[in-house]
Amino acid sequence: MKESRSFGIAVLGKYSLMREGISRILQEQKFRVLTSATGVEELRGKVRAQRLLFLIVHTSDDFSLVAAEIGRLRDEYPEAHVAVVAEHYAAAEPGLAFRAGAAGYLVNAISCDAFVKCIELLMLGEAVFPPAFPAPEPMAGKRRRTGRGAGIPRQEQAATAGCASPESPAAPLLSPRETAILRCLIEGDSNKFIARKIDIAEATVKAHIKAILRKIRVQNRTQAAIWGINNAVLLLPANSNSVFSAAEAETGWTLSR
Fold first, then answer.
1. Which residues form the HTH luxR-type domain (predicted)?
2. More exposed terminus of the chain, fewer Cβ within 10 Å: N or C?
């Protein structure tokens, strides 16, 4: 992904082991990790003005310290993107992070694949929050200002899929055909390519995608792909004839044909 090479990432947090773990995951995916540090003070002199993404690793019960850190980052690096990687989910924290100026709140219960997708979305200027957190209202043509400093560019929709807390309700089970199409979305296939692969009309693909978004409660195909990765749909074959046995083995449900 071109965006991943143009950004520099700094990982902040109290514990070096957690910072190193996140850094290694990102480096293995060819992201450019500039440094890791305990906080903003330690960052000085280590990162320069460029396209930056700061990941704050949150491991305590006191989110006010994280909110303050977000504010300091927004003051010193107003064009940077900032996101929180939380050790556990707390219902009030996504809203506090957003108001402080963060563009995302990720929970370490998600898979590595979903985490990487979320990082890519952050680099594209998307906001990435748990599904239970209401998406911010669109501000077309404007830049969000929350907490201190200027906000990051906003897309019309917040990316909320794939970053759910363990408490998030399970989405309704997709049909075998919808599962096959979702797997194609994970692979980045266009509607036209999906239609050829599964041998259905392109209009039918669009109808299925609309149904998928409604069932798993996301707003676009990128968010659906993240949801699919985080719910093991990546393991299912993108072939409607073989989806039955794979989905049944994965879920333990018997799917009606």
1. 167-232
2. C
Sign of CA pseudo-dihedral 30, 122, 149, 101: negative
* pLDDT tens, position by position, 214-242: 988 888 887 888 777 766 554 444 444 44
111 vs 226: CA distance, rounded Å: 10
Among the residue ranges 67-81, 82-96, 115-129, the one predicted with the least confidence is: 115-129
Give CB contacts under 8 A, 24+ apart, made by 230-236: 230/110, 230/111, 230/113, 230/114, 230/161, 230/162, 230/163, 230/164, 231/171, 233/179, 233/182, 233/183, 233/186, 234/113, 234/183, 234/186, 236/179, 236/180, 236/183
Give me the domains of the chain, ranges plus CATH numbers: 2-123 (3.40.50.2300), 176-251 (1.10.10.10)
**What pTM does this model have?**
0.61
